[in-house]
User: Fold this.
Amino acid sequence: MRFINNGFNEFLSWLESLRFFSTHEVEGLLAPLGGASGVVENSLYISAYEILGCALVEKFPSVIIKEFLVANEKQLGANPSQLYYFVESIVDHSVVRGVKSESLIEVAPADYKPFLSKRFASS
Amino acid sequence: MVCPRFLAETDKSGPQGSSGTKPETNAPKGGFGPTYRPADSEQLEKILTSYYGADKTGSRVGNGGLADAVRYEKSTGEFLSPAGHEQKAIEVSKRLNDFVRNADNQPPGKYPYTQRDIDFARELIGDIESALYK
Assistant:
């Protein structure tokens, strides 16, 4: 069962509507946090967004990830206190896979760029 | 603006490391948290990814851990993310406490809850509490 809370469930629905993940996949990814309901119940939103960002990078090539960031800048910038960590996780896990951080930061939501640039200054 | 970072104490390989680990002027006060070490269990390793980042030894404030980011933000007033790292620290502390609580319900040393992992989780919980409340 999902609860309406802080736009988290809307974000999951949106992500599923883009066909990046099925509902079943999302539940599996969030299982360590007690599933989507556990995330809401325990207020583990940032952790959940980080896990989903990591999973996106693991599942799709960097060119798709970059297109996703370009196409969804407005949505990803809508809840900066939490969604920043989704975008940071995408950049973080992409860098580990050899992607240049600059190529992703340049298409990240504008408000995130100063933080991401500082975070990945030497990547 | 100069990035307020310096190499982790464990990284002595690069040119910066070989010249020492001297913090810059606006480094967090009150010392630094523990450096990253790999976990025995996948469960803890996932939490460490949130604590230290995917690269684990990336250049950030202090020793690269979440608590050091909180210390930096509290001491300088400068956020390192749009809303700062306090909420993230609270979440990660919850996850670490859950890990330790689950471990307490297992026979001693039973995989995946090694004593080494439990001790490190407790050390990180203390580090977060120190950063948040002291």
Remarks:
- DSSP finds five helices and no strands in chain B.
